[in-house]
Amino acid sequence: MHKVLVFTDLHILPEGETLIGLDPAARFSQALAHALDNHGDAARIVITGDLTHNGAPAEYARLRTLLSRCPIPVSLMLGNHDRRAAFSAAFPSMPRTSSGHYQQMHDLKGHRLILLDTLDEDAPDRHSGWLSPGRMRWLDNALLGAGDRLITVFTHHPPIDCGFPAMDRIGLRNRDALTDRLRAHGRTAHIISGHIHRSISGNAGGLPVTIFKSPCHQAPMMLTGNDVHLSIDEPGAYGILLLTPSGVIVHSQDVGLPATRPQSYAPR
Length: 268
What we know:
One of its GO terms (molecular function) is cyclic-nucleotide phosphodiesterase activity. Residues 3-198 form the Calcineurin-like phosphoesterase domain. It comes from Roseovarius litoreus. Belongs to the cyclic nucleotide phosphodiesterase class-III family. The protein is of the alpha/beta class. The protein has one domain: Purple Acid Phosphatase, chain A, domain 2, CATH 3.60.21. Helix content is 22%, strand content 23%. It has six helices and eleven strands. The strands form two sheets. The chain has a six-stranded mixed sheet with strand order 4-5-6-7-9-8, with helices on one face. The chain has a five-stranded mixed sheet with strand order 3-2-1-10-11. A hairpin with a 2-residue loop joins strand 8 and strand 9 (207-211). The longest helix has 15 residues, at 24-38. It is globular, with a radius of gyration of 18 Å. The two termini are 34 Å apart.
């Protein structure tokens, strides 16, 4: 069994700046420390986009410092708050395709992780995602080369609606093209996404989808309304994926709660 840790929607800001009174860098540092203390045996950390809040060089520099001593390999993805040029300058060694998109694949025994770049810097609404034909061709090759490995796909923008009208309007615009390819391949075990800032599960045409919370601010339960920026100070979280011979087990771990000691309720 392999263990993969997942963070999403860090929204790192420059030193001294906050979001709804929270310091995203401090919240991420707390969550990362918790993950390393409890899951130092993980094979990889995947951070699924919105690494920064404004895509500014100072924000990426701060993130680079936060990750500089991480002993586990880290794969970084891009979200709608990121900017490709500034990210490239800060993380020049991060793998990217010949077209300049940050898509990666990593093989563990029996599994292939496929990380997709859904950032569309020309999106008409500024925040929705898109997988261009070139990115889709890269995905086709990654699926073709996977053999009999089980596939876990990572995206920033989830390939499902979440029931929040505001967020559903800025989702992955060509989600059907993605899920059609994954269903046709037949070995996709799970899709992991971010973007929404809540723990949500669902399925995309029969494929299981998990959306993780941010380590910083969360979205309120907003089943009505149109404000994509509404946020609430709730505990942050990160994901723990257990890759087994038969599939993927998904856990979400909250951080920042008061320390407690497990107690047994079994009769004595």
